[in-house]
Amino acid sequence: MSAPISQPLDLTAPPVVHKIARWSLIIGIIFGIVAAVLAFARPDEFYRGYLLAFMDWLGVALGSMAIIMIRHLTGGGWGVVIRRLQGAAMRTLPLLAILFIPIALGMKHLYIWARPLDQVADKHLREHLEDISKTYLTASGFIYRAILYFVIWNLLSFLLSKWSKEGDSPSAPDNTQKFKAVAGPGLILYGFTITFAAIDWVMSLDPSWISTIFGLVILIGEVLSAICFAVIVERILFNYRPMSQMLKPDFVHDHGKWMLTFIMVWAYFSFSQWLIIWAGNLPTEISFYLKRLNGGWGQVGLFLVIFHFAIPFALLLSRPFKRNIRKLVWLAAWLMIMRYIDLFWIIEPNFSRTFTITIADIVVPIAIGGFWLAYFFRNLGSLPLLPAYDPSAGEVLEPHHRGIPESA
Fold it and tell me: pLDDT at position 2, please?
């Protein structure tokens, strides 16, 4: 157990957290009303935008949970200083489970396999759907698997949050081994569940297409979104205590290095998928890129190559850039936009052969984002920004804040 604090630092989240939560909720309500109108007026466009928005914000929550588990296995103050930020994001999973309901109810607007087979004009696709609809792609299986995914994710979130909250008490036990015992299997479970969720919710938009690495492409995008979101929030809080006293240049540097790592892995997975599929040149696989290299979608793909990988990669090679939170936050915000565009490039060509942006693609993500951010900042304001009595807290708090001599 860690040493008691003789001159405690006030670790309460600053009032700006509650202010942002209120404004986020207002924005969510306003755009939510517009989105509800679109759901009735243009249901097909609405559900496409809804799936895009859902996958985008789900990625921040699940990626945050994954990074928390990585930190519990590897250690380091870089993860302690943002643990409560990412914990607040992780604890939005109950909200996201509720937000999945419209996708379950609107399956027929999104997935061709959920519609009557006599509506499928392509003979070969119809025969293919007859086979898979008897085994995997069924409406009931789709819902039951989604329930299983959210049960597993919320269970992991519950355990990690429960033991983290115990670190706020002076009599807190040392839960280090408990965290490690959950984090190892938890990361494996996360990898498997998000892979199957990506197959169910995104890949099955085109049931004739398969890719064994697709789940990893979605996974690495989620952890990249999560670390970028953490950098944005820590920059907002850096103007206030206690984050201004806890966030050290070394931690910011580490966050920048994680961003660089995830960008490189995202590029590696994305290129590997493209290279293997293009070299194989199989009709069931190549259709994915044929759609996305024509009709204006190819320019979006090139945009991602340059602005999602090449330029951020070059910037993050600079050590001074990675250590400067005021510069790093702008790149983090830009990469959050790139994550949205990447999901847009993956999802939307299934519905339109030419590059098309609908009003739902803008309104619905803002609506869901408003509600999600309101819940996130509410979670963030409900706990101290650091579990002061957790053994790992010493990696963030200065020695004099913990009653430890400077020479210790």
Answer: 42
